[in-house]
Structures are given as structure tokens and as C-alpha cells.
Design brief:
Largest sheet: 5 strands, mixed
Helix content: 25-40%
Order of helices and strands: EHEHEEHEH
Shape: globular
Strand order of the largest sheet: 2-1-3-5-4
Structural class: alpha/beta
CATH architecture: 3-Layer(aba) Sandwich
Radius of gyration: 15 Å
CATH superfamily: HybD-like
Number of helices: 4
CATH topology: Rossmann fold
């Protein structure tokens, strides 16, 4: 029997200050060994990651964003167009489309973005990103608990309680 799991995908450049928030947060969460949670850390999304995505029951992509308003946001995703080609960096929707088209399964997925204001060379987070990191970490832990309770024990699917964190 396949054990259900939630895949956390953290991506970004850890040498570009706030841009590294995704990989660093997912690495941090990986050390907690949350039940039913697996992690994938990379600098950018690529077609090779679609296999790991297809094996998951649910996926949360974690990335830095220069969105307005500068708040942590959690958005549900659908696979993108199948004809879209990968360029230098891919969008999570493209990765979901590859998982669906190549492996036959695109799991339920969300894109959690953390505000970024400093993309200069360095490894320190700006105060805005540090605050977002803390809020996102807490929300992912809550989602992981919901996932384990819903999917891991009763077979129900994960549904996040909210779509935006402030």
C-alpha cells in the first residue's frame, strides 16, 4: 500500500538574499520530520522534478515573490497548458502539466509565496521576508497536520482552510 505524502518543493537562489526563502524554509521544515511530508529543494524548477510531483498526493510549491501586497499568499494551482515549453525557469503549473502528461497524475497543488524585497547577493533575509518566513512556516505545519489527519488516516483529501495569510 502506498503511503500518502505531501511534497514540499522549495525553490530559489539561496545566494540572492530573500530569493532563497523557499529552499531555506523547506530545508528547515524537513528537519522536523513531519508525518507524511517529503521535501524537494532546488534552485529552479525543471522537467526532472515532475516525477517526484506525480508521486505525491498533494504538493506545496514554496517561493519568494515580489507581489503586491507584500503578504504570504497560498493559491491553489491547476496544471498549465501542455504545449508550454520550459525556459530557463519553470512555473509550478508547467511542472504539474508535465506530471500529468508524462506520468499520468497531477496532484492537488498550491503555490505558497513569501514576500521578497531584497534580491541582492547575500544570505540574510530582509525584515519583510523574515516575517513572511515565520508565518509561512506555521501555515505549512498546519497544512501538514491537516494532510496527515485527512489523507493519512481517513483517505479524505487535503483542503486548506484559507487562501491568503496576512
Amino acid at each position: 500500500m502506498k503511503i500518502p505524502h505531501l511534497l514540499l518543493v522549495g525553490y530559489g537562489n539561496t545566494l540572492r538574499s530573500d530569493d532563497g526563502v523557499g529552499p531555506r524554509l523547506v530545508e528547515d521544515l524537513g528537519t522536523l520530520r513531519l508525518p507524511g511530508v517529503r521535501t524537494l529543494i532546488c534552485q529552479q524548477l525543471s522537467p526532472e522534478h515532475s516525477g517526484a510531483v506525480a508521486l505525491a498526493d498533494a504538493v506545496i510549491f514554496v517561493d519568494a515573490a515580489v507581489d503586491d501586497p507584500p503578504v504570504v499568499q497560498l493559491r491553489e494551482l491547476q496544471p498549465g497548458p501542455a504545449a508550454q515549453l520550459f525556459a530557463h525557469a519553470a512555473d509550478p503549473r508547467t511542472l504539474l502539466a508535465f506530471a500529468r502528461d508524462v506520468f499520468g497524475h497531477a496532484p492537488r497543488a498550491w503555490w505558497l509565496t513569501i514576500p521578497a524585497v531584497n534580491l541582492a547577493f547575500g544570505e540574510q533575509f530582509s525584515p519583510v521576508t523574515a516575517a513572511g518566513y515565520a508565518a509561512a512556516r506555521q501555515r505549512i505545519q498546519e497544512l501538514a497536520d491537516e494532510f496527515w489527519e485527512a489523507k493519512g488516516r481517513s483517505g479524505r483529501s487535503l483542503t486548506p482552510a484559507s487562501c491568503q495569510l496576512v
